[in-house]
Write a sequence for this structure.
């Protein structure tokens, strides 16, 4: 099973297109049986950040600009920006494309579709 975790500094505006895409992708992945996703918010769940040695080590040596932190199967794969649709496609072995190109498993949500 593939596990994707996002460690985020705070909640961001729902008007942000990148945040809309991330939310749509994570919603689309919820029913996929071979992929587990989790998002953690530092403001609401600081204990989780402190409990994870890998995340704590990164935070101890960097500024808040390190957020978001993407973890794939227990390994940090990206810091400082959200994963792109191309990166998410590689991580999940699914093909994600922008929603405006048609098709989709995002249920009509803005930001993504997959096929």
């Amino acid at each position: 099973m593939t596990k994707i975790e996002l460690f985020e500094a705070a909640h961001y505006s729902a008007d942000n297109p990148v945040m809309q895409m991330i939310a749509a992708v994570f919603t689309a992945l919820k029913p996929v049986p071979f992929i587990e996703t989790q998002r953690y918010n530092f403001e609401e769940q600081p204990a989780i950040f402190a409990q994870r040695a890998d995340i704590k080590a990164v935070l101890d040596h960097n500024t808040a600009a390190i957020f978001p932190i993407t973890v794939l199967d227990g390994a940090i794969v990206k810091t400082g920006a959200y994963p792109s649709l191309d990166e998410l496609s590689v991580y999940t072995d699914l093909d994600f494309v922008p929603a405006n190109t048609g098709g989709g498993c995002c249920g009509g949500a803005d930001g993504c579709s997959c096929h």
Summary: Strands lie at 2-8, 35-41, 69-72, 75-79, 96-97, 113-114.
